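Dear H.,

Thanks for agreeing to be a second pair of eyes. The structure we're designing against is below in token form, covering all 416 positions.
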């Protein structure tokens, strides 16, 4: 099934009876060449690029719940490539470029909307740090504009520029950043992978790994044993639990991150605004809701719901930077489990178990990484060599002390 203006017209005059499910519902086969654990954005993107770029199609994606039930359907949809360090910036810019062609590639409306992101700054020192980050972005081929207070005021007049504690002095703007429809991205990748012959198996939890002489021979699941010689794990917030089944202890903690959506309002927010000093960021959805969030809950948890102190913290951040948000009513809120790595940067690497590959540690930032993460993970699984853009994301960097000391990533557990 492809989407086109003609198809839409035909379906609308024939009662929309011709639409088919976007992917099949197969049961697991006894053997696959590759099994991907986790049907979130990263697992599905990996399956898509394995088939499209590397010609592998005897693949299963096993998902313990339903597609979109994890963080891919829970995030606040921001995509950007405004990082600083060489290990990160080219990777996220690679991802931005994949986003820019994604809807055409998948023939799926993922609602990629490049309305820009502004990171506010409040001191001269912060401005200098943002100038440095903007220059690093330009060097990697990304776009960046440093806005002074007057230019920013013309763009976003309603901010509280004269806040006593955090007066706004300007912002770092990335015009090509923006938002995408989070669960739509999962559906688009799922449909493309399914069409290439990948089996997407929902309600199928991996409960163990079988090994023989240190090599993977298959996965135990709630729907039976599946034989395979290559397993790619992309389970985000469940990373520590799943990898523990293979005897591996990861430098990752799981924390809850909450998201909030207000009632629908007329178009107000031009793109994404982040207030890092006060832990608040906001954008506006196409339906008009203000979509906002802040910091992680400060304790480890696998519950997909958050706690009230962070609600208060986010509300205070919102009131400090745009007091008119106090007039909007909150429509809903939810939480997702974040796989917080100890340096705030991800891991895409082989593991000491032969045939077992790991993708995780995405912290706040895995949604924007979805296309590049899937591409790089597919490259690693297919060729057994890291993709150039993801070569810094080694698992052994924590043991060797070569952590990626990035400041553009958002919250990190080691800073709490
Ligand atoms: C509130 C919130 C806001 C966020 N905002 C942003 C943002 O604006 N921009 C951004 O870039 N990032 C954001 N993120 C982070 C981003 O959503 C994640 O980093 C990213 O989605 C993680 O990758 P994923 O999509 O593959 O994860 P998931 O969708 O969580 O996929 C992992 C899947 O693995 C499955 N699984 C777990 N254990 C097993 C098992 N044993 N067997 C089989 N399957 C299993 C889970 O059910 C799940 O479906 C946000 C996250 C949250 C929670």
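And this is the sequence the design step returned. I haven't edited it by hand at all.
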């Amino acid at each position: 099934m492809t989407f086109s203006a003609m198809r839409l017209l035909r379906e609308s005059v024939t009662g929309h009876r011709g639409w088919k499910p976007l992917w099949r519902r197969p049961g697991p086969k006894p053997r696959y060449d590759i099994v991907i654990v986790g049907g979130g954005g990263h697992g599905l993107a990996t399956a898509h690029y394995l088939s499209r770029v590397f010609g592998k199609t005897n693949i299963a994606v096993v998902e313990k719940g339903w597609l979109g039930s994890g963080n891919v359907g829970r995030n606040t949809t921001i995509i950007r490539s405004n990082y600083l360090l060489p290990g990160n910036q080219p990777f996220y810019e690679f991802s931005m470029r994949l986003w820019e062609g994604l809807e055409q590639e998948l023939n799926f409306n993922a609602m990629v909307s490049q309305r820009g992101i502004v990171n506010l700054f409040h001191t001269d020192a912060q401005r200098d740090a943002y100038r440095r980050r903007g220059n690093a972005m330009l060097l990697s081929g990304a776009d960046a504009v440093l806005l002074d207070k007057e230019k920013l005021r013309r763009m976003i007049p309603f901010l509280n520029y004269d806040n006593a504690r955090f007066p706004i002095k300007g912002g770092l703007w990335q015009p090509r950043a923006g938002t995408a429809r989070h669960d739509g991205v999962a559906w688009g990748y799922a449909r493309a992978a399914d069409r290439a012959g990948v089996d997407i198996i929902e309600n199928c939890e991996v409960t163990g790994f079988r090994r023989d002489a240190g090599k993977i021979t298959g996965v135990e699941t709630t729907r039976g044993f599946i034989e395979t010689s290559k397993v790619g794990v992309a389970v985000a917030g469940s990373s520590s639990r799943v990898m523990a089944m293979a005897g591996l202890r990861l430098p990752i903690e799981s924390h809850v991150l909450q998201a909030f959506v207000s009632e629908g309002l007329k178009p107000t927010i031009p793109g994404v605004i982040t207030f890092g000093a006060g832990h608040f960021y906001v954008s506006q959805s196409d339906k008009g809701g203000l979509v906002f969030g802040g910091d992680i809950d400060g304790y480890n948890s696998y519950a997909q719901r958050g706690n009230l102190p962070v609600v208060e913290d986010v509300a205070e951040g919102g009131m400090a930077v745009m007091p008119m948000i106090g007039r909007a009513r909150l429509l809903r809120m939810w939480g997702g489990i974040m796989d917080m790595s100890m340096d705030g940067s991800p891991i895409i690497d082989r593991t000491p178990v032969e045939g077992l590959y790991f993708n995780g540690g995405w912290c706040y930032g895995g949604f924007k990484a979805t296309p590049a993460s899937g591409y790089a993970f597919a490259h690693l699984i297919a060729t057994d060599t890291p993709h150039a853009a993801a070569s810094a994301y080694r698992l052994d960097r924590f043991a060797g002390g070569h952590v990626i000391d990035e400041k553009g990533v958002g919250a990190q557990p080691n800073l709490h």
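Two observations from my side: The chain has ten helices and 19 strands. The CA atoms of residues 81 and 92 lie 5 Å apart.

Warmly,
E.
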